[in-house]
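TOKENISED FOLD:
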Amino acid sequence: MRTIGFLASLLLFVSCSKPVDSVRVVEDFNYDWKFNLVDNNAASKPDFDDSAWKKINVPHDWSIEAGYRKENTAASSGFVPGGIGWYRKAFTLLEADKEKVIRVLFGGVYNNSSVWINGHFLGKRPYGYSTFSYNLTKYLKFDGSVNVIAVKVDRTAYVDSRWYTGSGIYRKVQLVKTNPLHIKQWGVQITTPKVSQEAADVKITTKINNQSAQPVENTSLKYSVLDASGALVAEKQVDMNVEGSNEAIITISKPKLWGVETPNLYTLKTQLFVGDRQVDNVSEIFGIRSFNFDANKGFSLNEKNFKLKGVNLHHDAGAVGTAVPKAIWEYRVDQLKSIGVNAIRMAHNPHAKELLEICDEKGILVMDEAFDEWINPKGKSLKYLGDNAAPEAAAKAYPEHFKVWAERDLKDLVLRDFNHPSVILWSIGNEIEWTFPYYSGTFNDVNTDGAAGYDEVPNYDPVAIKEAFKKNLKGPDSLAIIAKQLVKWIKEVDTSRPTIAGSVLPSISMTSGYGEAVDILGFNYRQADYDAAHKQYPDLKIVGSENWGAYSEWKSCIDREFVAGIFTWTGFAYLGEAGPWPRKGLEISFFDYAGFKTPRGHFFECLWKEDPKVYMVTTPSNESEFSFTEKDGWKFEMQLTPPPVWNMLRLWEWYKVHPKWQYNEEESIIVQTYTNCEEAELFLNGTSLGKQKRSDFDEDNIIKWLVPYAEGELKVVGFNNGEKADEYTLRSQGKLSKIAISSNKQTMKADGYDVAVVTIELLDEKGELITDVEEDITFTVEGDAKNIGVDNGWERNVSSHKGNTVKTRLGKAVVFVQSTKKKGEVKIKASSSSVASEDLILMMN
């Protein structure tokens, strides 16, 4: 322990008259804000008249609230408006808070935020994805007078990203009250350097902040480790150094390890004492696990090898935009887990802390990513994907701030997410090579034989690449220099996890020094490179960091032990990177905007889960990319995306398929069957159309039939070892007879945040889903809950999400219902012009 002299004045903030558990207070600061889309800097003044402003709670996304529009918006950012918005909140403090240090903590504000307290400017934060805080203490009033915090959000550059970002205070806000001597924000760091079934060392590093302006002595830290039931499993008290870091190791006997199947969690309670008086406490959730990436064996967790079955995920969630309640993230992660996903790449920026918490709780591994752009911007689309026609002023983006803010933004990400056991990789960037032309120029120069396509193996000869690189490079290689600096900054905070970058030109990156700057190289859409890269660089650790959601991508991974896994694009449909109007985003995912599983999701469920499954979809033969003749068998000819959109977008899209059996009599229909069973047999109205082996369709893993349509029932049965394992049925549809309504939960927490996902389906008189009829559905919510968004999951749905009515798509729609703080019964009903659902009852507890 380091002693610095002790003054009696310290007793003012450690008085025994206060309960020990009140030494740190974290208040919900989300309620009772005022908001206005206005460009008026007078709004920073505490006496500004905001009586006519809209009353809101945060998180809040004004872009999704404003809705989609064709004019003064852009394809890249989802055809929603930007602008300048102001937020103001009045609050009071008591005299008892006067000796406290009070900070405001913003989970995320998009973007270019500026903050004032009582008219005093606190600072700005350009990056819209960072979590940050300000010390308010010296500007506050503690006599019951009103304090006013004001936040300006400048989103005039409405196409500053390649995807939808949202606008405003879109993540949670907290008010944190501590004593002057306290544990720093994100000041407790936990690692598990030694892990076995018998024992685990838990290493704890704690940093202290002393703002009392007084020296202290006789300080100590007490660490208590609790298991998931709250039982104490270990504790230690150590003398403390007020300045610098404090380290301790606690050994846990017979630890319950954190893993994807058993995500066991512990709580570390850290208490700061002066003498026998507690002056601060912090609780952190953590997990005990070990993991490793190996250049030959791939990935292992707790010494068990398996493949990363990952998806990329953007930070928006359909109807709620980027103001996503934790309960919706929980629902989405459950959906992903249901098809076998065990990993998420946070594409391509820091995501909400609540999502990381859910990944911890549910056993999802995480690639935590910092940036999509560094010093050079990427092209932004105005009318359609690939036009790169966004106006300069509207496209101003983070590269303008990178040199000043990158270190702080990157380190804040690592500090904030340090203790999450789900996080196994820090990613410094995504496809950065595209913004440095000498990389793509070198690639083109050394692949003059035409081997430059995504499905072709490029030149990996380092001698030829170095020679070409020197000719293309006009000065220092800024990309490699920045990469090394970013990795250095990460290592200054965390040496327990490897770094990675999503590289789209790994053959060049491994020669330039960029690929060697990181611990692991991510291959974006370069599965054709795996063998060549492994041969040329046998010590290189490889992860498929961004992959098409195609069978070939997964097969390329499972056939190669050295490839740690893949992250497909994408887990859920996302807004932006789309066009032309009204295509607001890209449904190239396992689940659509509303959370409905797509055919691709069913297909990958068959790849990633062992539970027997069979599923089918249909396509008229004159629309399909597949064709069949007795002479040649099955053939495939890709139909590239038509102009004006970039034609190679088809590589990301799924086949043209329909989840129905409803066509013209005798129309020629191609039936695609997705299954993990050995064989499948197709029946039309009870008559077998033949049994086929999945192994006979090893090119795409899709069993196919060519069938003339006949009204009735189409059923496919999957077999393993000759025994029936699963079946799936499609039937011809009748007229609308019923609206079925259901919810993912029957009870909700009356906390003002919990959300139920309420789904409706259009059914005929036999209970079959009606896919071909679009009905306007009106939701009514009676009781103490509110509708926060309606959706049908379609990428061309540009109707407002903030009303009560939505048109069905493929016979389905959803409403997201959020609790208030009042307990009681909530009644939800869905109605069309001709039929209504039964009442759905949810209880708020």
The two ends are 48 Å apart (CA to CA). The CA atoms of residues 682 and 716 lie 4 Å apart. The chain has five domains: 20-178, 181-257+261-286, 306-586, 613-731, 736-844.
